[in-house]
């Protein structure tokens, strides 16, 4: 059995410097959008440079990869605080499907909100080459 640790390295956004208290919500969902694991939030990212917000945070997926059902996906929702509206908003999201789980770095595309956990109507956030940068480590249990 294998456990997966995902290091959330950085996210590329054209307005990265203007995001207040940015963090990621990580969830594992089946094809119907149902949570398979407890949802996890990262700490607020502290470093921004140019078009990147750096997280450098490890997230442990709380279930053996082999026990995740066919069609499951790991979602990453990028959230930030909007002072004018007084609440935290999801800016964009990304996801990784089971066939993308392998050790090493991976770069995944960003999609426009609202988060579509069923993955039916996906719209890319931008035509610019801006992505979510992750690094995966598999541990034999």
From TrEMBL:
What Gene Ontology cellular component terms go with this record?
membrane
Top-level taxon of origin: Eukaryota
Q: Look up keyword Lipoprotein and say if it applies.
A: no
Keywords recorded for this protein, A-Z:
Developmental protein
All copies of domain C2 Aida-type, residue ranges? 1-139
| Entries under Pfam families matching the protein | Aida_C2 (PF14186)
Which parts of the chain are coiled coil?
Answer: none
Q: Which residues form the signal peptide?
A: none
Q: Which GO terms describe its molecular function?
A: phosphatidylinositol binding
An example GO biological process term is:
determination of ventral identity
Question: Cross-referenced PANTHER family, in alphabetical order?
Answer: AXIN INTERACTOR, DORSALIZATION-ASSOCIATED PROTEIN
Q: Tell me which family the UniProt entry assigns to this protein.
A: Belongs to the AIDA family.
Task: Write out the function statement from the record.
Answer: Acts as a ventralizing factor during embryogenesis. Inhibits axin-mediated JNK activation by binding axin and disrupting axin homodimerization. This in turn antagonizes a Wnt/beta-catenin-independent dorsalization pathway activated by AXIN/JNK-signaling.
The name of this protein is: Axin interactor, dorsalization-associated protein-like
Q: Which organism is it from?
A: Salvelinus namaycush
């Amino acid at each position: 059995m294998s456990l997966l640790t995902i290091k959330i390295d950085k996210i590329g956004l054209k307005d990265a410097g203007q995001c207040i208290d940015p963090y990621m919500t990580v969830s594992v969902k089946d094809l119907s959008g149902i949570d398979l694991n407890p949802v996890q939030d990262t700490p607020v990212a502290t470093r921004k440079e140019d078009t990147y917000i750096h997280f450098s945070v490890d997230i442990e997926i709380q279930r053996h990869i082999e026990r995740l059902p066919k069609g499951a996906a790991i979602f990453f929702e990028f959230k930030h605080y909007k002072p004018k509206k007084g609440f935290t908003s999801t800016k964009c999201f990304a996801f990784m499907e089971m066939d993308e789980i392998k050790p090493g770095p991976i770069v995944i595309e960003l999609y426009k909100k609202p988060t579509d956990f069923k993955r039916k109507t996906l719209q890319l956030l931008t035509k610019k080459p801006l992505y979510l940068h992750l690094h995966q480590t598999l541990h034999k249990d």
